[in-house]
Design brief:
mainly beta; 12 strands; about 5% helix; about 35% strand
Length: about 240
């Protein structure tokens, strides 16, 4: 919900009126690179990706070693400032509780992708929603508060229908939504992220990992046991 307010009130969230100033109160900065510690670092100095890579191999029923969804680990800013009423013991209303996200998968020309391959079932919805849960602290002074929000951008059943895009890029438009402790709905500015689809580009043989460990060479992200085959995370094939 939006409202028009006098300029004198534009610097704070108007808890009494139940409205936020015009403009995005929260937005996505980037897709974060998961560090070797396997713990996301939601800060302005964290490493990030300009574009993603998703290995959809193998096809269903052929081993399923890389058969995983694609996740975005999004660095987000909240500009909601603290507005508690200390005199009456009121809880801080501008903690922002992220509830979920709507994802729209598109071609690079921003045309919706149809997921209707199984003629015995209804088409998969696009856009679609998924649930996530993060609470973001209020901003401190003029410095936004930052946190990481993980979104399942390409569920497994959608990945199975992206083989026609191998060697190409698709777009994932993500619209995060949440509610403040003060019960104000907040829609983030939408975030559009390009993802290159490949077949086998993130696969690595288990024997290669074993050999590398014997040589004390680190294979990035193997220790996190995610085995997703996305971005710089490998997908381990135990058969080679």
């Amino acid at each position: 919900m939006r409202c028009v307010s006098a300029l004198v009130a534009m610097s704070t969230i108007l808890a009494t009126s139940g409205c936020a100033p015009d403009g995005a109160s929260a937005f996505v900065i980037a897709n974060l690179r998961v560090p070797s510690s396997c713990v996301l670092q939601p800060s302005g100095t964290a490493e990030r990706f300009a574009t993603g890579t998703f290995d959809i191999s193998p096809s269903p029923g052929s081993g399923a070693y890389c058969d995983n969804p694609y996740y975005l680990n999004l660095l987000v800013d909240s500009n909601l400032r603290a507005n508690a009423k200390d005199a009456i013991g009121r809880a801080e209303p501008n903690y922002l509780q992220v509830k979920g996200a709507e994802v729209h998968l598109m071609t690079v020309n921003k045309e919706p992708i149809l997921f209707n391959r199984d003629k015995k079932k209804p088409p998969l919805p696009n856009p679609f929603s998924n649930v996530t849960s993060v609470t973001i602290n209020p901003a401190v002074g003029g410095t936004p508060s930052q946190d990481a929000v993980t979104v399942e951008a390409i569920p497994l059943e959608y990945a199975h229908q992206l083989d026609s895009f191998v060697g190409k890029k698709i777009l994932a438009e993500v619209q995060i939504f949440g509610t403040t402790i003060g019960d104000i709905d907040v829609n983030f500015k939408s975030f559009v992220y390009p993802i290159e689809i490949c077949d086998g580009c993130r696969q690595i043989c288990e024997s290669t990992i074993i050999a590398a460990k014997k040589q004390d060479t680190d294979i990035y992200k193997d220790a996190c046991q995610s085995d997703l085959g996305e971005d710089d995370q490998v997908c381990i094939d135990p058969t080679c």
